[in-house]
Amino acid sequence: MTEEGSMQHLAHMNWPWKAEESGIAIILVSDEQFVTLAEHPDEAVVKPHPRAEEPVSLRDYCRMGASGGATKLRIAYDYFFGGSQRSLYPDTEAFQDALKKIHDVAVEFGLGLEPSILSPLELGVGYKEKTG
């Protein structure tokens, strides 16, 4: 991103050379960060993405991404965050509620949501909680 918060456009590629739509990413390092983004979208969080030099709120990050031409907000967990136990998984109601709130903020800026939740490590926790 440039100093103004917009992405620098280097080239225009059409299919089949265009790999994917431009987007911004959030790499979650804790459940607490995920909940803060969902429940308080105007509250700045530390390091929501690898290149973040200063804390930024979800709403401001989406605004900057959209103004730079992004069409998607990608969100994923960093599986290697240490010292923090994870309890929110894609098949739990709490995770789905939080993801919906993040989606609603992204939509305000014309961004689609692309969660990375298809790892086998992520599935089954909610099912086990419901069924034993």
Protein traits:
132 residues; alpha/beta; three-stranded parallel beta sheet; 3 strands
What's the short story on this structure?
By secondary structure, the chain is an alpha/beta fold.
What does this 3D model show about the protein?
The chain has 132 residues and is an alpha/beta fold. It has helices at residues 31-39, 58-67, 93-108, 125-131, and strands at 23-28, 72-77, 112-115. It has a three-stranded parallel sheet. Helix 3 links the parallel strand 2 and strand 3. Helix 1 (31-39) packs across helix 3 (93-108). The longest helix has 16 residues, at 93-108. The termini are far apart.
Q: What level of helicity do the residues show?
A: 25-40%
Strand content: 5-15%
Biggest sheet features: 3 strands, parallel
Helix and strand content put the structural class at alpha/beta
**Order of strands across the biggest sheet?**
1-2-3
Distance between the termini: 47 Å
Number of helices: 4
N to C succession of SSEs? EHHEHEH
Q: What is the mean predicted local confidence, pLDDT?
A: 82
User: What is the strand tally?
Assistant: 3
Q: Any idea how many domains?
A: 1
User: Could you say which overall geometry the principal axes of the C-alpha atoms support?
Assistant: globular
Give unreliable regions as ranges.
none
How big is the Rg?
16 Å
